[in-house]
Specification:
Number of strands: 8
Structural class: alpha+beta
CATH class: Alpha Beta
Bound molecules: inosinic acid
Order of helices and strands: EHEHEEHEEEEHH
Helix content: 25-40%
Strand content: 25-35%
Oligomer: single chain
Length: 196
């Protein structure tokens, strides 16, 4: 059976990738399955760089096919911050209820509320060129937090076409329009082609 490593410890991400790759005939492993894995620092200044850093670290250390994703929220009025710092913004362990409250306060009086979620997925395999899959979803910072679904910044990220925040969407609704959903579908198409 073909083995592939999801270079992540995030349970939600691993679950999403497993659901997609197991039907394709992959045995899906994650970082906790790798003995003595040496974590890489996410030193990249763009999502694509960090995704490649994480996937290539696994392929280089273990000689195995790997996938990594890096994602985040860009707020135009904040010069595209938190961006690649989204997980660490205002402290890695700070609850998102607090992070979201601070963002809403800092947005007070600002007219341009445009923001986007970004997702970069890197695929690496020994003796192959790395491949990147990238997508975004254009949104606005809501006027108030709404909804209990999703995670992270979802309650304050408003998606105009559905007139809801990301946290008011069902998983299926979010997946159909989200940065990660769209990037995963590009990866899926590539793997289908690669294994024909
Ligand atoms: P990563 O795991 O280093 O790629 O960090 C991703 C971070 O971006 C998450 O911890 C969230 O803060 C933010 N993020 C990315 N995608 C989403 C999403 O779909 N909803 C809410 N927050 C997200």
């Amino acid at each position: 059976m073909k083995q592939i490593v999801i270079a992540s410890t995030n349970k939600g991400k691993i679950k999403e990738f497993k659901e997609m790759l197991e039907p394709e005939g992959y045995e899906v492993l994650c970082l906790s399955d790798l003995p003595d894995y040496k974590e890489v620092e996410e030193t990249g200044t763009i999502f694509q760089e960090n995704a490649i850093l994480k996937a290539a670290a696994v392929t280089n250390q273990y000689g195995i096919e790997a996938i990594a994703d890096d994602s985040g929220l860009e707020i135009d009025a904040f010069n595209k911050e938190p961006g690649v710092h989204s997980a660490r913004y205002l402290g890695h362990d700070t609850p998102y209820s607090y992070k979201n409250k601070v963002i809403l306060e800092r947005m007070e009086g600002i007219e341009n509320r445009n923001c986007r979620y970004v997702c970069a997925i890197a695929w690496t395999k020994p003796n192959h060129e790395p491949h990147l899959f990238y997508d975004t979803v254009e949104c606005q910072i809501a006027l108030e937090a709404k909804g209990d679904n999703g995670f992270g910044y979802d309650p304050i990220v408003y998606y105009e076409p559905l007139q809801k925040t990301m946290a008011e969407m069902s998983a299926e609704e979010k997946n159909a329009i989200s940065h990660r959903g769209k990037a995963i579908r590009k990866l899926e198409a590539f793997l289908d082609e690669a294994h024909k």
